[in-house]
Design brief:
124 residues, de novo design (two linked rop proteins), 4 helices, elongated, 23S_rRNA-intervening_sequence, 23S_rRNA_IVS_sf, Four helix bundle protein
Length: 124
């Protein structure tokens, strides 16, 4: 499949699905977490997709790679927030394991995308 926009990228699709799941589960969190953990999780989730999109819009591989690294950092932040959520009993163990696995799958695809961008940068 030809990549025409960032929406065609598998890594963006995975991050988008993760973001949607985070929004869904955080609606069930206690009200006193609204401006704490919920806000942090949602910001990290938004950052993960937004940085992929912004990097795609850059015309230099190195800039795109840097935005992807920012996105990857946000994905790792999400994993930490999921651990906190599980520790506090906001997520069932099953939901926690599922979302954590999705996060790491997204990170793995991100690492592959970054490696591909590096190869293209090095060959140009």
């Amino acid at each position: 499949m030809e990549i025409k926009t960032f929406e065609d990228l598998d890594v963006w699709k995975l991050a988008r699905e993760l973001r949607r799941n985070i929004y869904k589960v955080t609606k069930t969190y206690p009200k006193d977490e609204t401006y704490r953990l919920v806000d942090q999780m949602r910001r990290a989730a938004i950052s993960s997709t937004a940085n992929i999109a912004e990097g795609f819009g850059r015309f230099h591989y190195q800039e795109n790679i840097q935005f992807c690294r920012q996105s990857r950092g946000s994905l790792y932040e999400i994993v930490d927030h999921l651990i906190t959520s599980n520790d506090e009993g906001y997520l069932t163990d099953e939901k926690y394991q599922s979302m954590k696995a999705h996060s790491y799958r997204t990170i793995k695809v991100m690492n592959g995308y970054i490696a591909m961008l590096k190869k293209k940068k090095d060959s140009s």
